[in-house]
Structure formats: C-alpha cells, structure tokens
Design brief:
Layout lengths: L14 E4 L3 H10 L7 E4 L38 H7 L3 H7 L6 H14 L3 E2 L2 E9 L4 E9 L5 E9 L2 E3 L3 E3 L6 H5 L5 E3 L3 H9 L4 E4 L3 H12 L8 E4 L20 H8 L3 H10 L9 H13 L9 E4 L2 E10 L2 E8 L4 E7 L1 E4 L3 E3 L39 E3 L4 H4 L9 H13 L41
Parallel strand pairs: 1-2, 1-7, 2-3, 7-18, 9-16, 10-11, 10-16, 11-12
Antiparallel strand pairs: 4-5, 5-6, 8-17, 13-14, 14-15
Helix pairs in contact: 1-12, 7-10
Amino acid sequence: MNTTTHHTPDTPRDLVGIGIGPFNLSLAALAAPLTGLDAVFYDQRPAFHWHPGLLIDGARIQVPFLADLVTLADPTSPWTFLNHLRARDRLYPFYFAERFHIQRAEYDAYCRWVAENLPSLRFHHQVDAVRWNPEHGLFEVDYTQLDADGEAHAVGRTHAHNIVLGVGTEPHVPDQLRPLADAPGVPVVHAADYLDHRDTLLTAEHITVVGTGQSGAEVFLDLLRHRPPGREKIHWLGRTQAFAPMEYSKLGLEHFTPDYTRYFHALTEPVRDRLVTAQWQLHKGIDADTAAAIHDELYRHTLHGGWPDTVLTPGVHVRTAGRIAPTQIELHLEHTQQNTRTRLITDAVVLATGYRERPLDRLLAGLDPYMRRDSHERPRVDERFRLLLDPTVTGSAYVQNAETHTHGVGTPDLGLAAWRSATILNDLTGQEPYPLPSRTAFTTFGLEDGQPQVPTAHHHRALTPQADGT
C-alpha cells in the first residue's frame, strides 16, 4: 500500500518525524501514499502503545470512531478504522454493536495495526538532538539505536529538509507528591501506570484517588467494581469544585473544529492564555456515561443496606504528603471553599493528575539560536503548525500536540489529528494532496464576515507527491 520513494543512504530525507504517538502516526499514514515524499519516523519505544496503563475494560475514548488517524482528511485511505475492522473480519459485529464511541483498547489495537504495516516507522530509535546545519541547509537529527533491552546499540545521524515533532505528553506529578511517587516500594503511582499496579493496589486496606477528571473517574470506578460492598475503603478527591461533566453538547464540541483553532490562533497571546485556563471543562471534565456508571455502581453497593465505605470530595487540595509507615501515607488536605484542613491516612494513592506537554528545550537546544519565542519564552507556532524560526532556516520544523498555547484546547484532541496532519502535508509539499474544508462549524467565533478561509499552501521547496486513489 505504501509507494514512498526508495531512500538511498546519505540522501537527505524530505521529512523526519520525532515520536510515534497517534498524531505522528496519523501523519505517517497520510504521507504513505504520497509519491515523491521521503519520510521516516523515529521512536525510542519498541512498538506502538497508547496509554497502556489506562486500557481499563470498558473504558471508551471520548471522540467518535470517525476521529481515527485519517478519515476526516481522507475517508478513502487504507488506514481507516473501518478498514481495520474489515481486515480483522469484524465489520458486521461492529455494525450490530452500534457503537459510535469505541473502547480505548480497541483504538489502541487499531493504531498498532497501522503502525505494524507502515514501513516508514523506526522503533528502537531514540532521537538525541536536532540542529540546523546552515552550510548544507539541512536539519541534522542525531539518534541512538536501541537493542531489545533498551540499551544503546549504535548511533546514527539523519539529514532532513524538514522535521516534525510529535513527542507527546508525559504524566504530571504534583511537586508535593513527587518524592513519594519516585521512592521505590511506595504505593503512589500515576494513573498512566494504573493497570501495571492494579493487583497490588487492590490489596491495600485503603486507597485514595487524587484527580477528578476522566482518568480519576475511570480508576475510581474500576476500583469500586473490584472492592466488596461495605468494605470499599476508597477516597476520591480533587481540586475542581465539583465532579463536573465534560462539555459534550453539539455546539460546545465546535470548539474542536479547524474553524475554532484558526480563530484561537488569531487572538492575542494574553487572551489565548486566559481562554486555555477557563476552558478546562471542554476537555478535563468527566464523561456523562462514566459519571452515570459510577452512580449506578455506588447504588448497587447499597442494595443490601448501608452506604458504601467511600468518600467523594471535590474542591480539595493536597498541600503536603509524607510516608509514616512502610505501607502508610499521610496526606495533608485543604478544602478550598471552607478554608479548612485535615489529614488523611491511606495505604495507596493513584494520581490521576493529568499530563503535560513534554519540554522541547533539551531536544531542540541546537535550534535555540534560531527560535522565536513569546513573552513567556514558549516557542511561537504559526497557523500551519510550524515553529517560527529565523529566516535563514529554510526548512520547516512542525509540531504536533505541543501548541496548546497557540492553537487552543483542541491541540491534544484526536478529532483534529487528521486535519492537522493534512495541513502539514499540504504545506510541506506545496501542493494540496488533501483538500480541506473551508468551513467546519455552524458557529462564527468572531465578528468577521463569514468563516476564516484556509490560506493557500506555500513552501520553499516544491515536491511532486500524488495521493493514490484521490
């Protein structure tokens, strides 16, 4: 299915991708049929996996299955979720299941199917540094090839006309809890590693879940389902003022359209920063079905009389934490509305405290002299997802899921993956292998006449790709 140009040693690549998460996997899938485009993608992991610690039975992704890697840019692509079902002889079961939102484990299996069939991917490759070589007018990408045990096996260097960063996010552990999370043998784990530690967690006398977003809700629900009625002994707490539902109205979802992304990008930096903070409920609340399942499970635990031994308290901040016994942890809590404080003794803690964009400074230290930054020293990113670099840099450095400060809350949303990948490929090639809609929302977010229009693609170096079958 892949007709990518054959690469010869020492020939600069058209594109080098760093990181193979869903977003660069989307880009690789859409790049695969473009003849004349020589692309390669590196990742230090041995294979693709998507949040394996949170693939809890029954947990679903919060976007429809159409938000796969390619469909919203090219529904005829061989890498659609529906074609994955067809390849696995599962189309009819899916048809009768009538599921618009698929399970996380199913999305992970779909992505792994794509990853296993794209020859442009290079796992076991750790990218160490990226720099611009002004003499040759190319990016230099240094990498270490890893063996099956994750140890260094060989080093190498690739040259590229363009690069794309898709290094994703990393689990966020609050500073006051980091010493416990980093200490060996202490049962304080981030939700990203929940399934790896679930059996151990379930043996704890008392468990505390910190974080009132979707991950916290899924972990709490899973623990509740595995603890006997009357002996649950689970605390669930977090900073938000309520166990708030995620915004999922149809007009609310239009904040995850290309129209809103373009509108947001055109706003001033101070306004963008205020909006990102204020719009947390668009993507950090709890899915209504998950909230309903939690209430149903709590209710089930009352069927034989009595209340479940659980405490669900929003509006709570963990001030400090410490270890008071080999298997006991003391959390110092503050209720933000009551301005009251208390202590909680627990035997295990699951931190559903979210993720943060991975810092790019170390990886991009070689590009720092060329990089344009905003007033908070963050990289500036243009409308087509390119880092703003000095004009002497003739190549483009694109970013995926590292531009929330410039493109808004839709940045990590899977539903915008195909559109962003297509935007990058259109710009990269100077062609339009993936025609994109000029309007995607009923809402007009500003006072302009009509909707923003997509600028005509342009690029410093013309390629001649052609999308097969389009």
